[in-house]
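Pipeline run #58 for the internal structure catalog. This entry was flagged by the ingest filter as a single-chain record with no existing model, so it goes straight to prediction. Upstream metadata was stripped on purpose; only the residue string is passed forward. Reviewer on rotation: M.T. Logging verbosity set to normal.
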Amino acid sequence: MSDPALLSAAELLRRFRSRDLSPVEVTEAALARVERHEGVVNAFCLVDADGALVQARQSAERWGRGTPAGALDGVPVAVKDVFLTRGWPTLKGSKLVDPDQPWDVDAPAVASLRRSGAVLIGKTTTPELGWKGVTDSPRHGVTRNPWDPSRTAGGSSGGSSAALVLGMAALATGTDGGGSIRIPAAFCGHPGLKPTYGRVPVWPPSPYGTLAHAGPMARTVEDLALMLEVLAQPDPRDWSALPPDGSGYREGAVGSVAGLRVAYSPDLGRVAVDPEVADLVERAAATFGELGATVETAHPGFSDPLDIYEVLWSSGAAAATKDHGDEVLDEMDPGLRAIIEKGRRYSAVDYAEAARRRGELGAVMGRFHCDWDLLLTPTLPIPAFEAGRDVPVGWPDDRWPTWTPFTYPFNLTQQPAASVPCGLTAAGLPVGLQIVGPRHADALVLRAAAAYEVARPFSPRPPLLSQS
C-alpha cells in the first residue's frame, strides 16, 4: 500500500520503530486526504493542520531518540466533536453552544490520547448533541457516505467513520448511546466497538446517562484493541468508570473462537431484515462454525424495548437543554426539538419505571449468556439510505431507532458489542455483523471480531479512494 494514510495504526507504529516512515509523512498524507475528500463527505467540523504537523514533528523527534511517548505516538487520530479538547471548541453540532469561551480542558479519552503521543488532526462531525443515528446538524450540515455520497454515513459518529475510511485519520473516537459507533461502522464498512459501559471513562457525564458509551473506531480490529488499551486508562473524574481489568486487549484479540458457544439471531425473533443484508450476515455467522465454534440459531427472547429506551433517551435530551428557554428550540434540529418536548412531559415515576424495566432486560441477557458466550446479529437491518434524512424514504415510522433495532437494546444492557464489515450489497454498500458479549467481556468480543476479520478480510475500497 503506497499511501501511508491508508496503513493501519499498528503498521504505522511498526514502521516508525524501524525508521521506515516518519510521523510527519503520515500526518501530511492524512491531511492531503482531508483536502482531497472533505468537500465531498463533510467529515470534519475543525481541522488543525498546523497543530497536527507540530505534534508530528515532536513525535518524529521522540522516535528518533528511541523514546516514544506511548502506545500511539505519531498516529493520526480524529476526535468526535462531543469530547472536550483543549484549545479547540466542542460545539456538538449545535448553535446553542457558544464557541467564544475557554476551551482549556481535555475529556478523559482526549487526555489519554495526548499522553500516548497521538497526533490529533481535528474534530469530526456529529448530529446536534449526538441525538440520532445519522449525521447532519444545523451547525455543520450533512455528512455523507464514502461508498456513495448520496447516502448517509450513519451516526452519531458519522464524521469519524467517513474520516477513517478515506484515510483522513488512522483512528477515531466515537460515542454510542444507541448504536452511534456501530451504525456508522456498518454503513461505512469498518470495525467499531462499543465497550462495556464504564470501560472508557467519560467526563463531563453524558446527558443520556449510562446509555452513553465511549469507544474506539478503526480500520482493523487490531487497531480497535490497540486504541482501547489507551482509552481505558483510569480518570478520577468519572465516578462510574470500571477499574482496569488487566486485559491486554491487543494480545487478547489474537486467538481462536474454537469451542465457543455462539448464538446466531438473524432477526431477534421479530425484525424484518433486508434480504441482501440477511444473506451476508448468515454467511458471516456460518464462518464461526467453520472456525470451530458451536453456532446455533437462538434468540435472547426479549420484546422490543424501544419504549424503555425512548423514556431514557428523551429525558436525557430534555436535561441537556434545560438551561435554554423555549425560544431557542426553533434553532435546533426539528427531530431533536420533538424528543426534547417529549422528554419534558415524562415524570420522575416514568423515568424510574423505565430504569426498573431496563434492569429486567439486563437480567434476561445475563441469563442468556449463561448458555451462550456470544450473540451474533446483523448490525442493522438495512444498508445506508439517503443522506440528510432521519429515516429512509417510505419508512413507516419517523423515529430513528426504529431502523436500528439491533443496536440500542445493548446500550440498555451495557454489554460490549462490535460491528465488523461482512460484505457489500449489489449496490456496493457495506453490511455489518454485530458481535455481542456479556458485560465486561470486551476482550472476548475483540477476539471474535479479529478471528472473523482474519477468516473473511474485507478488502474492497470505496469508489472515492479508487478515484484518487
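catalog note: The radius of gyration is 21 Å.
catalog note: The longest strand covers residues 417-424.
status: ready for reviewer M.T.
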